[in-house]
Description:
- The protein is an alpha+beta fold.
- It folds into three domains: 2-73, Beta-grasp domain (Ubiquitin-like (UB roll)); 82-168, [2Fe-2S]-binding domain (DNA polymerase, domain 1, Orthogonal Bundle), CATH 1.10.150.120; 217-392, START domain (Alpha-D-Glucose-1,6-Bisphosphate, Chain A, domain 4, 2-Layer Sandwich).
- The chain has helices at 23-30, 82-93, 103-116, 122-129, 140-155, 159-171, 193-196, 229-236, 239-245, 341-363, 379-395, and strands at 2-8, 11-17, 49-52, 55-58, 71-73, 217-225, 249-255, 258-267, 270-283, 288-297, 302-316, 319-331.
- It has a seven-stranded antiparallel beta sheet with strand order 6-12-11-10-9-8-7. A five-stranded mixed beta sheet has the order 2-1-5-3-4, with helices on both faces.
- The longest helix is centred in the last third of the chain and has 23 residues, at 341-363.
- The protein starts with a strand and ends with a helix.
- 39% of the residues are buried.
- The structure holds FE2/S2 (inorganic) cluster (2 copies).
- One FE2/S2 (inorganic) cluster (FES) binds next to loops.
- One FE2/S2 (inorganic) cluster binds next to loops.
- It holds the Pfam family COXG.
- InterPro entries: 2Fe-2S-bd, 2Fe-2S-bd_dom_sf, 2Fe-2S_ferredoxin-like_sf, 2Fe-2S_ferredoxin-type, 2Fe2S_fd_BS, Beta-grasp_dom_sf, CO_DH_gsu, Diverse_Oxidoreductases.
- Keywords: 2Fe-2S, Iron, Iron-sulfur, Metal-binding, Oxidoreductase.
- One of its GO terms (molecular function) is 2 iron, 2 sulfur cluster binding.
- Residues 2-78 form the 2Fe-2S ferredoxin-type domain.
Amino acid sequence: MSELALQVNGKQVSQDVTPRTHLGDFLRDNLRQTGTNLSCEHGVCGSCTVLVDDKPVRSCITFAVACEGKKVTTIEGYDDDAIMRMLRGAFNEYHALQCGFCTPGMLATSRDIVLRLPDADQERVRIELSGNICRCTGYQGITAAVLSVLARLKEQPDEQVEQLRAGLRQNAPREFPVFQAFEPFAATKPVNVAASVTAGQAPATGKPGGVKEGKGTSVEGGFDLKVPAGQVWTFMTDLKAVAGCLPGAVIQEQDGDRVKGQIAIKFGPMAAAFKGNATLERRDADRVATLRGEGVDSLSNSRARGDVTYAIVQKEEHLCRVNVSLAYSLQGPLAQFSRSGLVQDFVKRMIADFGKNVEFRLLNPDADASDIPQSHISPFKLMMSVIWGRIKGLFGVGR
Ligand code: FES
Ligand code: FES
């Protein structure tokens, strides 16, 4: 047991909890704050969403002890909150609930949208809400309710809401982060390549060494290109060219194989723009390279570090395989998403789309990044294709 002290709905609470107790269980079982609903308990449905230090968090996958000294707000604790007051009225007006099971989490996420994204349009609101599942309403009323609050706040700004938004802007670090010396990432230690291959995976030779060991999460994927391996290697070691094929990536400074820049990621409720630096380590003889990077998302104060290892294997004269291994770890509020199967599927689709973009650039040498077909870099379409793939998998379609 550990002693846990935190603030819940404005009251100081101190209790003994086991280190494995989740925040959702702690709120419901220990504090009898049963307005927080648990459903999937895997971080997927969003029904358990509460605010921790004013940011939405999935209480089913957050350890209670991780909230030591923090401020937790549940659906029972919004009585003095201007945004929630407006959202509650709008949810009634637009019939944004039926059974109400998803509503506490839906309201917490909606509050975050209203606070963070004053200019959000319908598409943005839908994407932001996509991490909260409702089995009753069809989302129309929920979206309309959130949009109505955003519109109302534009017409009649509210002093409390303006203060909250100003606080959010102020708390976001503006300085470019200063990084500590980079330690090699544990999950990308070289492994016995032949031993790591299983049926249906990429070919044995040249498989990158990402493995599920140590800290972090590892995702592997790859793509075939109808281009000679040497040409692909030249392209893949040109960091500006590679960034141009990676959705959301921008290089701001380059010094040889070191770059500073930003990568924006959007997955359902998770939106982040990690600013940081990366270094390319290359083994030209084997056509294997590792891009080691780390960065900080200023909005959530989450920190990411990761290694992208790619190995280019010649298969035929004009055909090669690019095996890609991404090993990453997240710290901070976004860490709760890092191990979800959906996120890992998302990364695999990103790798596949990245491959299409690389092929496009190689086959169209006069084109630049802005000529890449937009259909390959839409995060929304990417996410929908992941979810559709999961649904098909559940029902055995395509097996
Ligand atoms: S119960 Fe927490 S996300 Fe579903
Ligand atoms: S209102 Fe029933 S699950 Fe959303």
